[in-house]
Structure formats: structure tokens, C-alpha cells
Design a protein that fits this description.
The structure is a homodimer. By secondary structure, the first copy, chain A, is an alpha/beta fold. The first copy, chain A, contains eleven helices and ten strands. Chain A folds into two domains: about 5-110, 3-Layer(aba) Sandwich (Cobalt-precorrin-4 Transmethylase, domain 1); about 115-264, Tetrapyrrole methylase, C-terminal domain (Methyltransferase, Cobalt-precorrin-4 Transmethylase, Domain 2, 2-Layer Sandwich), CATH 3.30.950. In chain A, about 50% of the residues are buried.
């Protein structure tokens, strides 16, 4: 009797696995991993294999989206099989497709969660988790022209007092925070609703949960000139701040007081 | 030289700790835990102490909110001290207060994340994480009259096509899913914006990440008559569904097809 487990590896490296994930993975007959839905800068597949005491086959996007029946699902009909994923496993739509395909084939499924950037990003900045609206992804101009919807979603969130977490398109780690801010500036040039200008407070995040994690709140114009090291990157576009959030951005993200005062 | 670590224990039991959290906690000189910001039904403090090889002092809400300077912070000035918390540590505002107090005292701080119900709830239902708006908490009538803001937040989310995760007030594990739905019904009686009726699709969640986790999508009227076992509980009020989300609710949450068709 087979089984399919989706196990989240959390952020940064193999230490983002939970004990539940570790124990379940060690009990599996076969292990697969996908490393394309997010970047885990500290992850070593060799170390992960030693930790889990088993060989791990890395699946590409195509393996999972088009070839899942032939690879992981055919194996999961007869054996206990896990797919290890970055973050919390269901954050990527492609994994929902796999889970539903397994269900339709009558394969029992188990989900084992872990840390997601969605809550960790709020945590490292001190911004109130319950004041975040819809999360958006800013597409790289090399893979996708910036859809106006990204701008509209940030506007919708801000209109009702909510912060926006904007993940950056992966684009092989080439789409940087300054480039993402420029994408938003270009949308502002077209839409002109005052969502982002040089003086707008933006929080830049790099490598959350890594020892060299960067969390920096500043004017968008200042962040444009900065280098945040290696990916993964994301930014937060805060809405109106509670005084404790403003204090947190000063103490945890080095926000200059003047930037916060601009937002009142 | 002291240090304060906030370490998330994730969901359900001590196996929700990440390997990073486990290793960091074992390296601490003193361990504290708070167990009041969420319910972890499978957690045994004795097992956790064996796992972390150290005694753990449980702090009450009052210890943390009024007495932190005298307890955990005075210790963290000189020693490596961790506070273990349910979920992802910064989901509770009280922990931000502690972190900022530590910063102001010059104590170095470290955050170690884990699973949060915010992303896990989306995961177990198959609802698209990027289609969730602001998360709300439904207060128990025994601790707090239901503020109209809860209703307004759900309405705001739905107006822009977003699902709402509604956590249930803890209230010593006495505030059940049927009671929470009745709170929303009473708000509907007053506000009359058609946000929730007997026929509205609601997803009930109990004990996410536990072996006996319940995920059930049905009409609000049907959920009113159900018993979901022990806490923690939450509900999701979905907005318009993508066809894959509708399929997920059938396969993962047993949604009757008729309920989904009602929502078009």
C-alpha cells in the first residue's frame, strides 16, 4: 500500500525541517525534492541525504507538472514516497495539482507543514501579521511584463489599511530588490495612484532565517541604490503603522525616524 | 553576554519544532515556554523537557506582559535564554513587545520560525494561499462582544475576491465552531450585507497537523450541528473559488458538490 507525503523544508537550509518532517522522511521508501519554487541558499542536497539516510531524486518543474504520473505518482501507488519542498508545501499551486492527482488515483496523502516566508516576513519586521492583506509576486520583466494587477492588489490592500508582502519572481536569482522597485515605479508612472514614490517606506528582506538575513526599512529611493547580497528576496509595502510597528521597524529594520514620520 | 531567542514550536506537538529550533534550544542556558497564545493538543511539557534536555519554566500571560523585566529579560542579560512559543513566534503581539524590550536593553535577539496556522490552514484545504486577505479572530461572547469589525473585515476581503481565515478566540477551549458561526449570524442580523447565511460555504478546521485533524467544507447551517472534537479550531470563509480550489474542497474537505455550485 502506497502513500504520498508532501513535506515542507521551511526556510534557508535543511534545519528548516520540523522533527515531524524529519521522522516521516526517514520512514519513507523513496524521497524526491523540488528546489525550483523557492531558493534555499543554505541547502545542501548531500547533507540532506545524510540527514534523511536516503538518496533524494531532484524533480524539475516539468517532472512535476507534466511527468508526475510516470515518476512520483507511479511510485507512490506501491511505496511510501515523500516530496520535499521549500517552505510550507502547499504554498505553490503545482503541489496542489500533485496532491489532487494522488487523491484521484486513490493514493493516501499526508501533508507536513513548515515555516513559510508569509509569516516569517511579518515576524522579522515586527509588522502585525493580522494587518497583512493579499500576498503578491512581482514578476521579472525578463519572464513576464509587470501586470497592472500587482499594483492594484497593493492599492486594494492599502485602501483597507493592510500591508502587502511582495515576493520576487525567482528568475534564476537575477531579479533583485532594486529591479522590483523599478517595476513598481513603472506601474506608478502609468497608474498614478500614489502607491509608490521615491519617499515611500519599503521594507527589504533578504535570506530570511539565514544567519546573514537582511531586514531593512527605508525610502524606496534609498533602497534602489542598495545591494542585498544573494537571494531569496522580498519586499513589504507597509500601510499605516501602529506606533509599536513603527518602533519595531526602527529597532528591527533600522528605519530612519524621518521615513516613519512621513507616514504619520 | 546574554541573548534572547524566540523559538516557534509550530503546530500540534513538540514535533512541530524545526531542527534549527531544536538545536538552538539545546544550546540555551535556560528555557521558558508560553502555552497561552494557542492550543497545542499533543504537546507534553515533560516530553519537550526530555527532548531539549533541560527544565522548562512555563510563563503565564501576566509573566510575559507585566513581569518580563523581572523574569526572562533579567536572565537574558547574562545567559542564553529561549522562549518557546506555539506556531511561528511573532504571530502574537505580546512577543513583539518582549523582543522590543530586549532590544532596548541591548540584549541580542534571535528569531527561529516554525509552522503557522496561517499558511497551514490554506494548505490543508487546497485554497490558494495568495487569495487570502486579512486574518481575523472571532472573539468569544464570554470574553468580548463580537465587534462589527470582524464582519467588516470578512466583507472587505470578499469584495476584492479574497478568502478569510478566522481563528477562534481560545477562551479555555470552550468557544466552538458552531458558536463562532452563530456569532457571525448575529452580526449578519445587524449588518445585513449577505456575508453569511445558512447556505454559505464555510470550511471548518480542527487540530491542523494532528493525526486526527478535521477539514470539512459544508454549508454554515450544516456545520452548526456538528461536533469537531477538541481544539484548536478555526474556520475559513471562502470567496469566489477557482475551479481547482473547488475540486480541492471536494477531495480534501468533503465539500458536497451542491454547496460549491451555489457559489458559482
Amino acid at each position: 500500500m502506497g502513500e504520498l507525503l508532501l513535506i515542507g523544508m521551511g526556510l534557508h537550509d535543511e534545519n528548516g525541517l520540523t522533527l515531524r518532517g524529519l521522522n516521516a522522511a526517514r520512514d519513507c521508501d523513496a524521497l524526491y525534492a523540488e528546489l525550483h519554487t523557492s531558493i534555499m541558499p543554505g541547502l545542501s542536497v548531500a547533507r540532506l541525504e545524510r540527514l534523511l539516510r536516503k538518496e533524494i531524486k531532484i524533480l524539475t518543474r516539468k517532472d512535476l507538472e507534466e511527468g508526475a504520473e510516470r515518476t512520483i505518482l507511479s511510485k507512490a501507488k506501491e511505496a511510501r514516497v515523500a516530496l520535499l519542498t521549500p517552505g510550507d508545501p502547499m504554498s505553490a499551486t503545482t503541489h496542489l495539482g500533485l496532491l489532487l492527482s494522488a487523491k484521484k488515483l486513490g493514493i493516501p496523502t499526508v501533508l507536513i507543514h513548515s515555516t513559510s516566508i508569509i509569516t516569517a516576513a511579518a515576524g522579522v519586521t515586527g509588522l502585525e501579521l493580522y494587518k497583512f492583506g493579499r500576498t503578491v509576486t512581482i514578476p521579472s520583466p525578463r519572464t513576464n511584463p509587470a501586470p497592472e494587477s500587482v499594483y492594484e492588489f497593493i492599492k486594494d490592500n492599502r485602501r483597507i489599511g493592510l500591508h502587502t508582502l511582495a515576493l520576487l519572481d525567482i528568475d534564476d536569482g537575477q531579479f533583485t530588490i532594486p529591479e522590483a522597485i523599478r517595476v513598481l515605479f513603472r506601474l506608478e508612472d502609468t497608474k498614478r495612484d500614489g502607491i509608490i514614490t521615491d519617499d515611500t517606506l519599503v521594507v527589504a528582506l533578504a535570506r530570511v532565517e539565514a544567519p546573514d538575513c537582511i531586514v531593512r526599512a527605508d525610502k524606496a529611493g534609498n533602497l534602489l541604490k542598495s545591494n542585498f547580497g544573494e537571494p531569496p528576496w522580498s519586499i513589504i509595502l507597509p500601510s499605516k503603522l501602529h506606533f509599536m510597528e513603527a518602533e519595531a521597524l526602527q529597532l528591527l529594520a533600522g528605519a530612519p525616524r524621518a521615513v516613519l514620520e512621513v507616514r504619520g
